Amino acid sequence: xTTHSTDDTIQPITDTARVLADPVRLRLLAIIGAAxxxxxxxxxxxxxxxxxxxxYHIRILAQEGLISIITEGRHRHVRFxxxxxxxxxxxxxxxxxxxxx
Length: 101
What we know:
- The protein is built from five helices and three strands.
- It has helices spanning 3-20, 23-35, 40-47, 51-63, 82-99, and strands at 37-39, 67-72, 75-80.
- Strands 1-3-2 form a three-stranded antiparallel beta sheet.
- The protein is α+β, with helices and mostly antiparallel strands.
- Helix 1 (3-20) crosses helix 5 and helix 2 (23-35) packs across helix 4.
- A hairpin with a 2-residue loop joins strand 2 and strand 3.
- 69% of the residues lie in helices and 15% in strands.
């Protein structure tokens, strides 16, 4: 095992974990994940935060690839990206395997 391969595994975990460390983002992601896709207006209602707060945090979640933003006319929906979450959990599992003796 080389340090390089460990670093290649750790970096994606660090990036996603940093995004998920914020309680508001984690709550938004949980709401989106439960619905799989949800209109932003409903997300604001369920999260009990301001629209600007939701907008800020969904932009960060989208940049990390954890959600996608769908615009249909004046309406926006957010969709949970299961593939990106699978990659994150795969990297976590890989890290656990690397650290075993």
